[in-house]
Amino acid sequence: MWAVQLLYQHEFNDEPMPEALARFWESRKAGPSLRGFTEALVNGVLDQRDALDQDLQRYTEHWDLKRLNAVDRNILRVALFEILHRHDIPPVVSINEAIELAKSFNGDESGRFVNGVLDRIHRDQGRPSRTTLTAVAGRTISPPETKGHEDSPA
Fold first, then answer.
1. Which of 5, 45, 102, 130 is deepest in the core (most CB within 10 A)?
2. In angstroms, what CA-CA distances link 33 with 80, 82, 117?
3. Are 76 and 4 in contact (CB under 8 A)?
4. pLDDT at residue 39 is higher than 50
5. Cα dihedral: 86, 89, 92, 97 (round 10)
6. What pLDDT was estimated at residue 62?
7. How many CB atoms lie within 10 A of CB 148?
């Protein structure tokens, strides 16, 4: 959740991330491992944001990613980064956490939307849902092949 908060804040101000992180941690109690994990997610998403957004745009077919709610956009970015680059986290964990965050911030409809997007991405990955991967060569994400409504999120 903190990674999403930091990315959301970063989207609306020009503060350099090192200063934003320092200010963010001043008001929160977190040990070094939680800080390290959160900062790795934030920096990873920022480093890969253009590629993540391109992938997300393909899977949000009828939505302009820039017009998407900023919280949902950052939830999707973090979850997609975890699915593609954090092979120590099972995809089902990333997807479920993203759904719960979306529902808590923006309601059930948002949770269903996030679920639909991430489920399609995960299926195209072909990665096991409940296991971690220790070594994966390159990105395997591919754009969706169908553009119809028959595979729209439930």
1. 102
2. 21, 17, 30
3. no
4. yes
5. -90
6. 82
7. 7
Measured at the CA of 116, the angle between CA 110 and CA 117, to 5 degrees, comes to 95
Q: What is the pLDDT of residues 78-137, one digit of tens each?
A: 999 999 999 899 999 999 999 999 999 999 999 999 999 999 999 998 766 666 554 343
Query: Which pair of tokens denotes residue 148?
Result: 């119809």
Q: Does the reported pTM lie above 0.90?
A: no
Domains of the chain: 2-125 (1.10.940.10)
**Alpha carbon 100 to its chain's center:** 12
Rounded to 5 degrees, φ, ψ at 16 are -60, 145
Count Cα atoms within 13 angstroms, Cβ side, for 25. Answer: 14
143 versus 55: which is more confidently predicted? 55
Structure tokens at 82: 């975890």
- Asked whether the CA dihedral 54, 149, 72, 141 is positive or negative, the reply is negative
